[in-house]
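From the methods appendix. Each design record in this collection lists the tokenized structure first, followed by the designed amino acid sequence. Records were kept in a plain field format so they could be parsed without special tools. The example shown here is representative of the layout used throughout.

RECORD:
FOLD TOKENS (306 positions):
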């Protein structure tokens, strides 16, 4: 089967594409830019030899439509790309992001129907309004979360209007190799550099999920997409616990691989600028190799810190 995938250079996108290719899908990977560097380039190298890569092809652009029209049949259109620059800033513009995420969608949907597309798969976030379980009435956690929620509503309205099946795949807190320098990167690099990391938000309850487990969940979601279903959602969940407890878990896993003590300190108090709890809904129901995953994480950061 053939998949068109936007946003393949992102952390989760690269692992999704890699997993789909390994499972026998033909994947057209559409990139917004012509060239990449750093982590994004290294992610692309994970799958570029096996995917059909098209560069300088942002969602909704002229080359995008030229490319789509040349593909004889499209089984799934996976829209993983989204505007994320400065996503943590309060100045992030959700309306501009919405326009970017949905550009010329109404022109795309009839073409997908002509290509006998089984479904359009949209990536969502647990930090959107109304997603997951948690506190603060499930409000949008940030302007970025708001933009993702607006995007989802836009897609659902127009896919229903054009009778195009829509699948929504909700992402919680992924972690693993090739991730941007976020929480687990901070922990691992601190230990390898002989430093003691300090956790400022130990009381947040979050849903941390290995990126390879998330990719397997994505593949299973596509494989389970039944004909005739107009809307379906998956919200995979893994380690639901406080960030303090997750730090303890991650420290234990890295300690035996780094052969270091891996100490850390936790803040005694915390200001809750975000909802105290926000997690996904669907616990992972398949076996995955924890030892192999954490081995890969440790090896990645050991190479990074040489």
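DESIGN:
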């Amino acid at each position: 089967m053939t998949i068109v995938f936007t946003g393949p250079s992102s952390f989760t996108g690269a692992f999704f594409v890699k997993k789909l290719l390994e499972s026998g899908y033909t994947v057209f990977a559409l990139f917004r830019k012509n060239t990449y560097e750093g982590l994004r380039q290294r992610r692309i190298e994970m799958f570029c030899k096996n995917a059909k890569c098209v560069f300088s092809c942002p969602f909704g652009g002229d080359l995008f439509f030229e490319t789509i029209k040349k593909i004889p049949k499209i089984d799934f259109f996976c829209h993983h790309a989204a505007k994320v620059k400065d996503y943590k800033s309060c100045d992030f513009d959700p309306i501009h992001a919405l326009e970017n995420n949905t550009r010329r969608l109404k022109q795309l949907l009839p073409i997908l129907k002509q290509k006998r597309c089984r479904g359009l798969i949209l990536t969502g976030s647990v930090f959107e309004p109304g997603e997951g379980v948690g506190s603060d009435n499930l409000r949008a956690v940030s302007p970025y979360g708001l933009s993702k929620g607006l995007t989802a509503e836009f897609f659902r309205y127009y896919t229903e209007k054009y009778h195009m099946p829509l699948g929504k795949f909700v992402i919680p807190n992924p972690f693993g190799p090739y991730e941007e320098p976020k929480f687990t990167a901070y922990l691992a690099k601190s230990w390898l550099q002989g430093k003691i990391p300090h956790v400022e938000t130990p009381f947040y309850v979050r849903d941390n999920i290995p990126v390879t487990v998330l990719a397997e969940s994505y593949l299973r979601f596509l494989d389970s997409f039944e004909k005739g279903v107009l809307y379906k959602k998956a919200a995979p969940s893994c380690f639901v616990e406080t960030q303090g407890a997750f730090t303890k878990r991650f420290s234990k896993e890295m300690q035996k691989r780094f052969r270091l003590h891996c100490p850390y300190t936790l803040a005694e108090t915390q200001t809750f600028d975000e909802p105290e709890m926000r997690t996904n809904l669907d616990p992972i129901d398949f076996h995955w190799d924890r030892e192999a995953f954490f081995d890969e994480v440790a090896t990645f950061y050991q190479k990074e810190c040489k």
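APPENDIX NOTE: The chain has a mean pLDDT of 96.
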